[in-house]
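Help! Submission page says 'invalid entity' but I think these are all valid:
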Amino acid sequence: MDAQTVIAKRIALELQDGTLVNLGIGIPTRVANYVPAGIKVYFQSENGLIGTGAVPEEGMHHRLLTDAGGKPVTALPGACVFDSAMSFGLIRGGHLAMTVLGGLQVDQSGHLANWMIPGKMVPGMGGAMDLASGAKRVVIAMQHSAKGKSKVVKTCNLPLTSARPIDLLVTELAVIAFPDGRATLMETAPGVSVQQVLDASEAELVVPDNVPEMAI
Amino acid sequence: MRTLSLPAAVALIPDGASLMIGGFMGVGTPEIVVDELVRQGKRGLTVIANDTAMPAVGIGKLVRARLVKKAIVSHIGTNPETQAQMIAGEMEVDLVPQGTLIERIRAGGFGLGGILTATGLGTVVGEGKQKVAIAGKDYLVEPALRADFALVNAFMADYLGNLAYALTGRNFNPVIAMAADTVIVAADNIVPVGLISPDHVVTPAPLVDYLIAHS
């Protein structure tokens, strides 16, 4: 299983029946492929859609039916549309059970940086700051390292997305939660040892006596 | 509401005007109005919108033609031309979190002075801004936004100017229609009064100043 599949499958286990969920661009989008059988999740695209469906078949796209990346999608039966003020009211107003976002860095107190690299990449925050501040639960889908450097750091040195800490970090190596503001190793990926996770993390991780393997 | 040709409607817009433009990555942007702004070469524009789309799409065309002096947007990552002009100091870009941006526009259209939001607290967005605490929670004070013109794309307009939108083309459109001194609408379909049922009118006719006639 490749890294992105491990991450997407594990985060899919966090989905709760009947809830509203927003998936960011990239790995988070893939979570929708692994919704557990028997549950119904409402996926929001922040450009104004609940009930975002799969990519349309060739020739079946509609110019006014797109996801938050501007890419063609379908709308599931029961879908609804609304303007951007409503969309962000859903996000900030306590109506969004969970958001899944990508990350550039997560630090050991749960702070997220995911919107710019000063001097290199300034795309703008889009909806990320509202999602990271407003969703009831913030889950980050992120590869553990990039270019040999750990992205699970002691303190973010990139600009933060929110002062509010995230709730859960899922990488291809581990699941990390932040009880009492301390990064705590909850699970390891299949075939990955606790030591491998510690070696791949710049952050100091709290390691409980029993660290189960991801049930993916 | 008055009906105007596309060139006549765009001729109302002077150089240096502030424009709110509907659309999300170009979806729901009044493309014909953008093209006419480029053709008439309106300069020194301030654009308030979700994003600057792509260089050949929607607001991206205004950027590419170097007509934009300042952009107040949430995202420029899909338009390298915006980033290049920003880095070169040729264009001012004010990046605003998307939810804060749309709510500042909503406030501008709803007669409010601004909004209080937790979004941006403890980040560069909050630096130098007024903060208030209400019921023990901290918020940033974000001022309302208005513009000289709103350039709206509707899916349907009736002869009076009642507007309905389709799917994700709605986005910023009905909100900016409240927040500008002059509202110009390019509708995909112009239909007889009554075809849009009262329940389905999103933007009421009295908000619309000019409807662009089909050519």
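Support: the input was valid. A stray whitespace character was the problem, and the output above is from the cleaned input. Helices of chain B lie at 6-11, 31-40, 59-64, 80-87, 98-109, 173-176.
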